[in-house]
Design brief:
The complex is a heterodimer of chains A (218) and B (256). Chain A has 218 residues and is an all-alpha fold. Chain A contains 8 helices and no strands. Chain A has one domain: Orthogonal Bundle (MetI-like fold), CATH 1.10.3720.10. In chain B, β7, α6 and β8 form a beta-alpha-beta unit. Chain B starts with a strand and ends with a helix. The chains are: A mainly alpha (218), B alpha/beta (256). At the A-B interface, α5 and α6 of A face α2, β6 and α3 of B.
């Protein structure tokens, strides 16, 4: 039984990890683009971007998942997600990417705006271009400052992936819960908790290492 | 030989006129100190010279090269401003060293980037020059330290070396010792005095009156955005004629 449960949960965990990794791959860079939009001097860019961030951060991810999956079909009779498991997974991924890139963008914005203006000015008087100043002077300082809040957000994402079950993405908790009905046992649910703990523990160690790596300067 | 010529320079921030029609010139190898109370426009003047602010009016010339002319046909491009800034070096009140680079890297970063832009980075000679400059600043044993491991006075000396590494025509100091503990100002002022002895062309905004008197060939007293008085240190600091200069300097006498 234990072996069977482990195998089933691993299948669900694979979905969880897939959703987690792909969300990060897309939302970390997209968040940077959104943060530049939210800091734009052109209000025709800044205002709509800030509006979207407000909507996304101000409504539950659960709601966004449901609207993302059912919305296009019911409102526009468009089958954008394709059918079956893969269609639901893509819909969930898109909802996660949008949601997390908005959160990341605010962290980036805070990090970029916390760099003293003197750093930019020092770069300028030394004849550097804007992009040289960003990449050679500012970026590493921003990264150092945002590692703690980003790692916080990423560890939240590990657990948020479980929300994908509302559109029937068979992630690990879904699989664990299935044993309540099929076998009348609860321990597989606790077992899923161990997966989460190990995974987030691993990430905590990883981010601790990164913070340590960047501690050579202040 | 005239190094810098500033004519009818003006700068406002929204409705406040910070610099109201300033003209002055300085010769190669001269040290000019700018004194005056806070809000008199001293720092804004330096920032205009470095194109950290774009003047609203006036002309800035280095030798015979017009760097800025408000009557010019086209507004200055970012690229043009970048090149023109290199005529000036700038040392900030708060040092503004790059925290993730060592003292030596702070000095060599900009020259290396520029050299790469020209396509022939001779990194070894850039590094040697950086070491030399830091040695001149008395920092031979601090080259591999990061800014947070240095005292304020040491950081400011790295900043001076960093500005010198690009061989500017004129080195500008914006209150270089105002952020330092009193016991650390001496080491920075000494370095600036050495530069003056070697005829580095410098403009120094400062509140250190006795230093200004010792180091300057010319002193400019600014008040409410204009030059109220200018002349030799003996004229301006020891025998001021302008009512505002007398009043300003009397504050210092009362303290000392």
């Amino acid at each position: 039984m234990f072996f069977h449960v482990t195998l089933t949960l691993l299948g669900g965990f694979l979905q969880t990890v897939k959703l987690f990794v792909l969300t990060l791959v897309f939302s970390l860079p997209l968040g940077l683009v959104i943060s530049f939009g939210s800091m734009s001097k052109i209000s025709a860019i800044k205002a709509p971007v800030r509006f979207v961030i407000w909507v996304i951060r101000g409504t539950p991810l659960m709601l966004q998942l449901l609207v993302m999956y059912y919305g296009p079909g019911i409102m526009f009779h468009a089958n954008v997600w394709g059918s079956g498991d893969s269609g639901r997974f893509v819909a969930a991924l898109v909802a996660f990417v949008i949601n997390y890139s908005c959160y990341f963008s605010e962290i980036y914005r805070g990090g970029i705006q916390s760099i003293p203006v003197g750093q930019y000015e020092a770069g300028k008087v030394l004849g550097m271009t804007k992009s040289q100043i960003f990449f050679k002077v500012v970026l590493l300082q921003v990264i150092k400052r945002i590692v703690p809040p980003i790692s916080n957000e990423i560890i939240t994402l590990v657990k948020d992936t479980s929300l994908a079950r509302v559109i029937a993405v068979y992630e690990i908790i879904w699989e664990g819960q299935s044993f309540i009905k099929s076998a009348g046992i609860i321990w597989p649910l606790f077992y899923t908790g161990i997966f989460y703990l190990l995974f987030s523990g691993l990430l905590t160690i990883l981010f601790g290492q990164i913070e340590k790596k960047l501690s050579y300067f202040r | 030989m005239i190094m810098l010529e500033v004519k009818n320079l003006k700068k406002s921030f929204s409705s406040t006129e910070v610099i109201h029609d300033i003209s002055f010139s300085m010769d190669e190898g001269e040290t000019v100190s700018i004194i005056g109370s806070s809000g008199s426009g001293k720092t804004t003047l330096l920032r205009c010279l470095n194109f950290l602010e774009t003047p609203d009016g006036g002309v800035i010339k280095i030798r015979d090269d017009v760097l800025f002319d408000s009557n010019a046909e086209e507004p200055m491009s970012e690229e043009a401003a970048r090149k023109k800034r290199l005529h000036f070096g700038m040392v900030f009140q708060s040092f503004n060293l790059f925290p993730q680079y060592t003292a030596l890297e702070n000095v060599t970063l900009a020259p290396s980037i520029l050299a790469k832009g020209y396509g022939n980075p001779d990194i070894t000679s850039i590094e040697n020059r950086g070491r030399e400059l830091l040695a001149d600043m008395g920092l031979s044993d601090r080259m591999q330290n990061y800014p947070h491991e240095l005292s304020g006075g040491q950081q400011q000396r790295v900043a001076i070396a960093r500005a010198l590494a690009l061989n500017p025509d004129i080195l500008c100091f914006d209150e270089p010792t105002s952020a330092l503990d009193p016991e650390l100002t001496g080491e920075v002022l000494r370095v600036i005095k050495d530069l003056a002895k070697n005829h580095t062309t410098m403009i120094i905004v400062t509140h250190e009156m006795s230093f200004a008197r010792d180091v300057s060939d010319k002193v400019i007293f600014m008040d409410k955005g204009v030059i109220a008085e200018e002349g030799t240190p003996e004229e301006v600091i020891d025998n001021p004629k302008n009512e505002r200069t007398i009043q300003f300097l009397s504050n210092y006498r009362n303290i000392q």
